[in-house]
Specification:
With 321 residues, the protein is an alpha/beta fold. The chain is 33% helix and 26% strand. The protein is built from ten helices and 18 strands. The N terminus is likely disordered.
């Protein structure tokens, strides 16, 4: 709603939009010359767009492969006339937004929905694909973790679980794309999938990469920092230099896509984390003292909130060893 009032040769426009109030002052002559309030309203459309911006992004990367981002872990997609594939689902509302965008490009069911791992910001939107996705695929441990978490949280009815699982490797052609999926052992969890669109040469890492952001290391689901480092090193050797990687999360100011240099940087962060915490334990510092750390030496790009998640996970892993 816009309310216009006159005051000392000026027109005061008060804009009320979804609980937000903005006030704009303009000269009466400019207001009169606009011809009508409707025209004036259109003149302030950019402002209203800033107040209520688009909440999600649909971005094409290569060939028919792209990403969707709104809230949660980055979603990957393949949209082509002969098949549709989606990787991860964020939350139900976000998945509904993605499905609306997919239908604008290609009607029909989703041939395959893949979950990189079980966490809620990657699987809570699965339910939006009920009756739409032909199959849901995840690593066998991810499937177990998702079911266990749902039972623990008493929200089984809100879930749509995988009907297909694999143990080490899974591969299938859909349309003109070859989808190759690997499990290389425990890392972020004990059920992390790496999905490679071979022809596009795009690799969805799930949460195996937090780009310049402190990671969540789920020790309750079998995470291993030491093996995580090895997996990132294997990935750098296995994929060629042209490979484009999709990351689960990134710190503000950084992208959720990148190259092998970003994998190396994150491996260096995890290495620095283990080395630092090991040194602190050997020096006799307590857990409480170590948790007061505000930065990991040797990892200057990792800043902001969440360092305690890394420190606690590293402490748990080192102490148990």
């Amino acid at each position: 709603m816009i309310i216009a009032t006159k005051a000392l040769g000026f027109v005061v426009l008060k804009i009320y939009w979804r609980g937000i109030k903005s006030t704009i002052i303009m000269k009466r002559r400019s207001f009169v010359q606009s011809g009508s309030l409707a025209v004036t309203f259109s003149a302030f459309t950019p402002l209203l767009n800033m107040i209520n911006p688009a909440t999600y992004q649909m971005k094409l990367l290569r060939r028919n492969v792209g990403i969707f981002n709104e809230k949660g872990g980055t979603i990957g997609w393949l949209i082509q006339p002969d098949g549709i594939v989606v990787i991860d689902t964020q939350w139900k509302e976000q998945s509904q937004h993605l499905l609306e965008e997919i239908q604008k490009q290609q009607s029909g069911p989703v041939d395959l929905l893949i979950n990189t791992h079980h966490h809620g910001d990657h699987t809570s939107g699965n339910i939006a694909y009920k009756g739409i996705a032909k199959h849901i695929l995840a690593h066998e441990n991810s499937n177990i973790n998702q079911r266990t978490s749902a039972e623990k949280n008493n929200n089984v009815a809100d879930q749509l679980f995988p009907d297909l699982t694999y143990s080490d490797r899974w591969q299938q052609s859909i349309g003109d794309e070859i989808i190759d999926i690997q499990y290389l052992g425990p890392a972020h969890t004990n059920g992390d999938s790496i999905i490679h669109f071979q022809n596009a040469n795009v690799v969805h890492c799930g949460d195996l990469v937090f780009n310049r952001r402190y990671p969540y290391i789920d020790k309750s689901a079998g995470a291993s920092i030491e093996n995580w480092i090895e997996i990132l090193q294997q990935m750098q050797s296995y994929y060629d230099n042209d490979a484009l990687f999709i990351f689960g999360h990134a710190r503000e100011g950084y992208d959720v896509t990148g190259n092998k240099n970003d994998l190396a940087a994150f491996a260096d962060y995890l290495t620095a984390l283990l080395e630092f915490v090991t040194k602190e334990i050997r020096s006799g510092r307590s857990r409480e003292q170590i948790l007061t750390t505000t930065a990991i030496p040797g990892a200057p790009q990792w800043i902001g909130d969440g360092i305690e998640r890394s420190l606690n996970a590293a402490l748990d892993e080192i102490v148990r060893e």
